[in-house]
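Standup notes
- DV: blocked on the single-chain target, sequence here:
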Amino acid sequence: MNNSFYNDFAARFAAGTLTSLVESFNSQVGNRGFNSVRAAHDNALIDELVRRGIDVSVVFDGTTISFAHYVELDNNSLVIKK
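- DV (later): unblocked, structure below
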């Protein structure tokens, strides 16, 4: 992964609101494309959510991030949006 891309995304996410982080996550739902920039984006996003104390276990198992479902924030946890 390109650290420059990761660092750029990490800085952007650190400055964002929780709402904007959830929106960033949801913008990737259904996107099947994958490259090093997307990997940097996805990892920086999950890392920022975790850094803020958000439970991301519904979409991240420690290795793989799932963008199969839209999520919302509920009591410091990401939950599948109904």
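- Follow-up: The chain has a mean pLDDT of 94.
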